[in-house]
Write a structure and sequence with these properties.
Blueprint: E1 5-8, H1 27-30, E2 35-39, H2 51-68, E3 71-75, E4 88-91, E5 96-99, H3 113-117, H4 119-128, H5 134-147, H6 159-167, H7 172-194, E6 200-203, E7 210-214, E8 217-221, E9 232-237, E10 240-249, E11 252-263
Parallel strand pairs: 1-2, 2-3, 5-6, 6-8
Antiparallel strand pairs: 1-9, 4-5, 7-8, 9-10, 10-11
């Protein structure tokens, strides 16, 4: 994998809520990368309403990277479980682990309508599958992603309608809050179980950008390109991990303030 390795996640290409409708706007952000590592939910593979636009933008992004001399590696997420052959990447001899994060919770996205509606079904799938190894757990995550696809998706970008969508059915908002409140602890539990030598885990999925650096391990969430959340970039080069904010100026995305640097 050629350095610098630039890590982004949750572009959600094709989704009407995504802030990216032209991949050329990402050019300043990815300029200078040796490898662009996309950590899941790059495009809307499973959503019928968004698939065509998502696939088109995903192809355009890969073509642009080829023109720029940037290698591309995409990991699967719960919205694009068909991306890639492996669900994680290890750097620095296994001290850094990158994975989407949908396998942190048993049902992937506890706040999703389908996780609520199909509780018995996904519990039954858990009972049938082994999850002792990371490969087994990630394989189950892909099965769950395909099982819990919503039959339809809202296409509105209206913030009021999106807020109403988030609140229904009753209890969904509470599940979101609880997931956010416990995501860091659960992420640490996940990588301590499956990656015991890891010191850093980089994930997305939760749309909550942040850095949590404690003795139990450094957790970095790169957020998403969907409002109202923010997005972070991570870069690995020459033994150093840098994390910073992504800024949206005019029609272009670019790297902003550096939030932290770690030598690993």
């Amino acid at each position: 994998m050629r350095e610098p390795v630039l890590i982004l996640s949750d572009l959600h290409l094709g989704h009407k809520g995504s802030l990216i409708d032209d991949v050329a706007a990402l050019r300043p952000l990815i300029e200078g990368a040796g490898t662009l590592l996309l950590n899941g939910d790059t495009w809307q593979e499973l959503a019928r309403e968004f698939r065509a636009d998502g696939e088109r933008l995903w192809i355009e992004l890969q073509q642009m990277c080829t023109q720029m001399g940037i290698d591309v590696m995409a990991l699967p997420g719960n919205h694009d479980p068909g991306n890639g052959d492996c669900g994680y990447v290890e750097l620095a001899g296994g001290k850094i682990v990158i994975t989407h994060g949908d396998c942190v919770f048993a049902e992937g996205a506890p706040w999703s309508r389908m996780a609520i509606a199909k509780h018995k079904e996904w519990m039954a799938l858990w009972a049938q599958r082994a999850t002792e190894t990371i490969d087994e757990r990630l394989a189950l995550g892909r099965e769950l992603a395909r099982m819990l696809v919503a039959p339809s998706h809202g296409r509105s970008q209206n913030l009021f309608l999106r807020a109403w969508d988030a609140l229904m059915p009753p209890g969904r908002a509470l599940r979101m809050v609880l997931s956010w409140a416990t995501m860091v602890a659960e992420t640490r539990n996940f990588f301590q179980r499956y990656f015991p030598v890891a010191e850093v885990m980089i994930c997305g999925h939760f749309h909550r950008a942040g850095i949590w650096d404690e003795k139990q391990g450094l957790v970095i969430n790169t957020g998403s390109f969907m409002p109202p959340g923010a997005a972070y970039w991570c870069e690995w080069a020459s033994g150093n991990l840098r994390v910073g904010k992504i800024e949206h100026e005019g029609n272009m995305w670019q790297r902003g303030e550096v939030m932290g640097i770690w030598s690993i």
